[in-house]
Amino acid sequence: MRHEPAVLRTRAAVRSSLADVGGGATVLAAVSGGADSLALAAALAHVATRLKLSAGAVIVDHKLQSGSDERAARAAEQCRELGLDPVIVRPVTVGRAGGPEAAARTARYAALDATADDLGADVVLLGHTLDDQAETVLLGLARGSGARSLAGMAAVAGRYRRPFLGVRRTETRAACRALGLDVWHDPHNADPAYARVRVRREVLPVLESALGPGVVEALARTASLLRDDADALDEWAGKAAADGLVLDALSAVPAAVRRRVLRQAAIAAGCPAGALTARHIADMDRLVHDWHGQGPVSLPAGLVAERSCDRLLLR
Questions:
Q1: Angle at Cα 114 formed by Cα 108 and Cα 117, nearest 5°?
Q2: Where residue 264 sits, what CATH number does that domain have?
Q3: Structural domain tally of the chain?
Q4: What's the predicted TM-score (pTM) here?
Q5: 8-state DSSP, 246
Q6: Confidence grade of residue 43 (pLDDT, cut at 50, 70, 90)
Q7: 147 in a structural domain
Q8: What's the alpha-carbon Rg for the chain, to the nearest Å?
Q9: How confident is the model at residue 101 (pLDDT cuts 50, 70, 90)?
Q10: What domain range is 81 assigned to?
């Protein structure tokens, strides 16, 4: 079992992700009971001893399905058997804002943040895989998203880290089998009502059949390249915004930079990021580079963008 390739692969991924974390730090694994998160918990338990880290787990019970408390308890039991300590089960109440998936995500991250704060955790590990990354890129393409969305999930985002973005889902399942872990199969992951499930079960198999193997890896590489591009453009936009929304200065930078400046300014003024669409940004952009007397642009949260002398104002 110790030499099972999938087990070694998951351990190596976690070890690499935590290479810069100093000894004595507290690291938590977010565990659902599925194969990805249990493989993550097992790899963390193994690696933490060698890196002299304090390693625990958080199981968020969304209470959206019958028996969720029992499944959370079973996941917690397996985490303790792996040697993780502390192991915390966090029941949450999922709201409705943004739809069921977004609401569950909001509740989950709030619970993870609260637990990490309570325990003084430096790092929280998430079990998203290479397959999840490819699915995220395809969903972004379908929405007509920009480079930041197509860049997928970041390997590191604040205290959160995703060690398995280079690991296939088949490998996490194989690791769990080799380790004798009791994996829970979430019925939502087979429900075609969810767009991600349709991408996973229908779209990606068709792409691999038509284009050959390696589509998932290619999509993940695309995400990585676009993330570098998006980071560079965001940095440029930050510098371009230093003097405010001066019309001449905004007109002088490329459209990709200018639109980032406008988006950042709208969010800073109080516009919810999730409600700000490409159409809103395009309408603001026309006030800068294609103005012919049109009036103010209405934005979410009651905000208005308008030209005033040499500047664009948000009020």
A1: 140
A2: 3.30.465
A3: 2
A4: 0.87
A5: B
A6: very high
A7: no
A8: 22
A9: confident
A10: 5-127+162-185
